[in-house]
């Protein structure tokens, strides 16, 4: 598979994720159930659309987990992350064109939405991302789950959103947070590091734990 096709698939998938996931959050006022379902359904749609091309990571936290698991080269990891971030920025720009550039862009704002401030927000993002990525690693481990993997991943994303939306807005995806934050500015941009560091740490932890468990299983 040509690398440029994989990178474009990641760009396109992440752009669509931001447009529809964050777009629904804007339209519904971040209604928990509706927004959670929207993000989950986008993942399902993209999994079966670009999954065979790039694996449908559309998330740097997933890509870092695949890198640690030995399923992605460092070169492709860099290419994927750049493509994902550019896709998220493009998606946020589309939201601005649709709703106006004062729409908030569905950006995460940790300190405003959690009583525990930065540390709690960081811990929540690590936990939510670890659960999400752990499920991805499990369901994509073998071919036996290939037909339902997209559905499982989508429903897991719904699950973590149901818990996380009222806590951090739920990122679990550095690119998804970066794109909207660039346009939203203010506290969203100041706090975006939480939604970059937290998911990356969570993704890495999920990969390490899964690698340990898989190693034991194989023995």
Labels describing this entry:
10 helices, mainly alpha, 0% strand, 219 residues, globular, single chain
Commentary on this structure:
The protein is mostly helical and 219 residues long. It has 10 helices and no strands. It has helices at residues 3-28, 32-54, 60-68, 74-99, 110-113, 117-139, 149-164, 174-184, 186-190, 194-218. Helix 2 packs antiparallel against helix 7 (149-164), helix 3 (60-68) crosses helix 6 and helix 6 (117-139) runs parallel beside helix 10 (194-218).
The number of E-state strands comes to 0
Measured distance between first and last alpha carbons: 33 Å
Radius of gyration: 16 Å
Alpha-beta content class: mainly alpha
Topology readout:
Elements: H1 3-28, H2 32-54, H3 60-68, H4 74-99, H5 110-113, H6 117-139, H7 149-164, H8 174-184, H9 186-190, H10 194-218
Helix pairs in contact: 1-2, 1-4, 1-8, 2-7, 3-4, 3-6, 3-10, 4-8, 6-7, 6-10, 8-10
